[in-house]
Amino acid sequence: MIRNTTQSNALVSAQFTNYRLYGYVNYDLSAQSAQYGDCTCSSSATCITQYAVINYPNFTDTFPLPGLYTGCYIVDSLLQSDLQCFYDQACISKVQSYLGSSTLMNVTALNISLSIQFLENSTISDIIDQLMVEEWINSSMYENYYSECQPLHCTYTVTTKNSVIYIITTLIGLVGGLITVLKLTVPMLVKFARKRMHKEVKTET
């Protein structure tokens, strides 16, 4: 919601990645929405383009980084990026060569065979949605739970389906009860009907 509010109110990012500010001789300033491909930051906060190492001062792309993107906002760009480069030792070595540091860190590429859930092209957003957890291992220790909580009593409900035997016995019970009710009520109804008919016959004669 915060990112949507930032984009809707056209707030300029600290890195000026979503809007370009231009100054004039008369000290006027104008802002122009940044464009990434066919997408403009004024219409969408998720505009991205391939991130690349740029040759300064010519500003020419020297080495595009696979899986990494830049766009209107750093967070949105990062969430749409993936870790392809970090699974490739050659890509990591090439990135280190552009860092310009005399002492290179010993960085080893990620091993895709060790991954259970995530793939090379899994986005950062997908990984964060899973809390960066490859696999949940459930270990239930009820003894420790009860010793810690010390409940006075415990109740539980088990939901099951009725068995065939239970259904048959229930139907037999219903039929038996219905027969018993009919045995008690039918003779009384017949007796009442006969008396009524007998009175009507006497009245006619």
Structural write-up:
There is one protein chain. The protein is α+β, with helices and mostly antiparallel strands and 205 residues long. It has a domain at 163-200. 39% of the residues lie in helices and 17% in strands. It contains six helices and six strands; from the N terminus they run αββββββααααα. The protein has a two-stranded antiparallel sheet with strand order 1-2. A two-stranded antiparallel ribbon has the order 3-4. A two-stranded antiparallel sheet has the order 5-6. Strand 3 (35-36) and strand 4 (39-40) form a beta hairpin. It is elongated and about 125 Å long. The N and C termini lie far apart (94 Å). The model has no long low-confidence stretch (mean pLDDT 85). The chain crosses the membrane at residues 164-190. Keywords: Membrane, Transmembrane, Transmembrane helix.
Brief summary of the model shown:
By secondary structure, this protein is an alpha+beta fold. It has helices at 2-8, 74-80, 89-99, 124-129, 142-149, 164-204; strands spanning 19-23, 29-33, 35-36, 39-40, 48-55, 60-71.
The succession of helices and strands, N to C, reads HEEEEEEHHHHH
Number of DSSP strands? Answer: 6
Helix/strand structural class: alpha+beta
Helical region count? 6
Q: What composes the largest sheet?
A: 2 strands, antiparallel
Helical percentage = 25-40%
User: Low-confidence stretches at least 5 residues in length (pLDDT < 50)?
Assistant: none
Indicate the radius of gyration in whole angstroms. 39 Å
Write the layout of secondary structure elements.
Blueprint lengths: L1 H7 L10 E5 L5 E5 L1 E2 L2 E2 L7 E8 L4 E12 L2 H7 L8 H11 L24 H6 L12 H8 L14 H41 L1
Antiparallel strand pairs: 1-2, 3-4, 5-6
